[in-house]
């Protein structure tokens, strides 16, 4: 059965569960809210629902119930590779089923029909100053594409129907995931390669084609596949996924919603941290002035950062309380890749891994002194020659599209309401505080 048909069946089977929970058990209490949470970024309040992924503070992410190693092991692999295709992962995220080779081939063929990006999108990006941040370019590219929205067209058709609205979200979502790597590669070549663009190779899967379009080696194909899958989803409360969900809850179409999500991803406490990590390392190396990095000078650099009131990029997390398994997956990729495991930058990042948790624990502020996904990702890009670190968050944004688009397809399928939490005033908090 084709992906959309399978999804239709899954959504229809799932709907009664959501309806029953709302109608029969709607008043069951699953959490309470403290003043600290109200002021402190709604941390840990259980108020979002998704079945696409779940983040356990100790274990890390599970995609559709599978850990990262289980996901990589279960999915059909790209030809000649130990890594799954992004296409197979997309099928899995949307349906929860491990696809057959034939189902993966169908998704790949479908993406080929969706890949072509209209020229006006490139014109809009080219019109920006060349020193605009690549995340601005990506966000503009997605916004420019909005006029293609099938969901917006359906909404404006006069035939809008909540029961089938998810189908046009699925269409937009599939267009976005198929096109975003093409836009990202265009931005890369525009900004860093003198606008020497490389055409799509229609014989390649998404990750391999991205590698080809940014002029990369064969080895980078697996980097792209791994990278996009690892960055795809991190349950629903993170800034990019939550923003996408929130904006789409107003029935803004997937283009508006994901451009908003990308704008959140561009924050230094979120996706921009991967660029900040490389910036931090380069600054550190500059100060070393040719000397060898040691545990002592790394410790000093970490304290200098903390004493300057800055955060150590790539460390800490709002939910995780252990090393991020996405960090571990990338570290293992480095360790098993000849050349990369002996690379000086990898060695330095490994030394930061040995040092930073102790320093952060002694500093005593962060609830999680362990590395997150961003602490390791730049090293791999750097090694393969993608040294333009302000591009790294764009790579995150290509991967995150998979999770955000799968989530809002299900949001519409299950008819989730417009998101509208209630705010209170400081005086109200003070009164509740005084009342105990
Ligand atoms: N370095 C220094 N201080 C930190 C760090 C860090 N890496 N992480 C947290 N803190 C501080 C934080 O600023 C806060 O200080 P204050 O009380 O003065 O406001 C205190 O520790 C408590 O924060 P937490 O409750 O541990 O963390 P929170 O949930 O608020 O924030 C992050 C989570 C991820 C925003 C935070 O750990 C951070 O800023 N990390 C560095 C940036 C980063 O790597 N972000 C990427 C996250 C993953 N991603 O890709 O999105
Ligand atoms: C993410 O992947 O979105 C980050 O780890 C941040 C988060 O989960 O809050």
Brief sketch in words of this structure:
The chain has helices at residues 3-25, 35-39, 68-74, 86-95, 101-114, 119-126, 134-144, 150-156, 165-192, 206-213, 220-230, 239-249, 254-265, 273-288, 295-307, 325-336, 344-363, 374-383, 392-413, 426-435; strands at residues 53-56, 60-63.
Mean pLDDT level: 97
Number of strands: 2
Structural class: mainly alpha
The CATH topology name of the domain at 273-383 reads Cytochrome p450-Terp, domain 2
User: What assembly state would you assign to the polypeptide chains in this entry?
Assistant: single chain
User: Could you name the CATH class of the domain at 273-383?
Assistant: Mainly Alpha
Low-confidence stretches: none
Termini, distance in Å? 58 Å
Biggest sheet: strand arrangement: 1-2
Radius of gyration: 22 Å
Keywords: Acyltransferase, Transferase
Protein name: citrate synthase (unknown stereospecificity)
Pfam families: Citrate_synt
InterPro entries: Citrate_synth-like_lrg_a-sub (IPR016142), Citrate_synth-like_sm_a-sub (IPR016143), Citrate_synthase (IPR002020), Citrate_synthase_AS (IPR019810), Citrate_synthase_sf (IPR036969)
């Amino acid at each position: 059965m084709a992906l959309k048909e399978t999804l239709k069946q899954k959504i229809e089977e799932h709907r009664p569960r959501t309806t029953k929970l709302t109608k029969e058990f709607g008043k069951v209490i699953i959490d309470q809210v403290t003043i600290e949470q109200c002021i402190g970024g709604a941390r840990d309040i259980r108020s979002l629902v998704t079945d696409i992924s779940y983040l356990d503070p100790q274990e890390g992410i599970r995609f559709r119930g599978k850990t990262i190693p289980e996901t990589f092991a279960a999915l059909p692999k790209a030809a000649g590779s130990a890594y799954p295709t992004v296409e197979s992962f997309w099928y899995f995220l949307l349906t929860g089923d491990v696809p057959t080779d034939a189902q993966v081939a169908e998704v790949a063929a479908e993406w080929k029909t969706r890949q072509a990006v209209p020229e006006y999108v490139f014109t809009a990006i080219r019109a920006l100053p060349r020193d605009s941040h690549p995340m601005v370019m990506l966000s503009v590219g997605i916004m420019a594409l909005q006029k293609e929205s099938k969901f917006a067209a359906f909404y404006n058709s006069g035939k809008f129907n909540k029961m089938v609205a998810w189908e046009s979200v699925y269409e937009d979502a599939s267009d976005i995931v198929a096109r975003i790597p093409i836009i990202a590669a265009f931005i890369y070549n525009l900004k860093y390669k003198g606008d020497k663009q490389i055409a799509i190779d229609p014989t390649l899967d998404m990750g391999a084609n991205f590698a080809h379009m940014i002029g990369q080696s064969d080895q980078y194909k697996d980097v792209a596949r791994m990278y996009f899958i690892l960055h795809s989803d991190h349950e629903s409360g993170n800034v990019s996924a939550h923003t996408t969900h929130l904006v789409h809850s107003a029935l803004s179409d997937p283009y508006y919603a994901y451009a908003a999500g990308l704008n959140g991803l561009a924050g230094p406490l979120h996706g921009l941290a991967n660029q900040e990590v490389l910036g931090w390392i380069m600054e550190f190396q500059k100060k070393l002035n040719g000397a060898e990095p040691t545990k002592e000078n790394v410790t000093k650099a970490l304290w200098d950062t903390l004493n300057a009131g800055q955060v150590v990029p790539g460390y800490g997390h709002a939910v995780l309380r252990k090393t991020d398994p996405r960090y571990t997956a990338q570290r293992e990729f480095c360790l098993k890749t000849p050349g990369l495991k002996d690379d000086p930058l990898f060695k330095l990042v490994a030394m930061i891994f040995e040092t930073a948790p102790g320093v952060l624990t002694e500093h005593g502020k962060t609830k999680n002194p362990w590395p997150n996904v961003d602490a390791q990702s730049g090293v791999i890009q750097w090694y393969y020659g993608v040294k333009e670190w302000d591009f790294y968050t764009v790579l995150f944004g290509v991967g995150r599209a998979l999770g955000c688009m799968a989530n809002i397809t299900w949001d519409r399928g299950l008819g989730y309401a417009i998101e509208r939490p209630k705010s209170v005033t400081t005086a109200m908090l003070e009164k509740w505080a005084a009342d105990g």
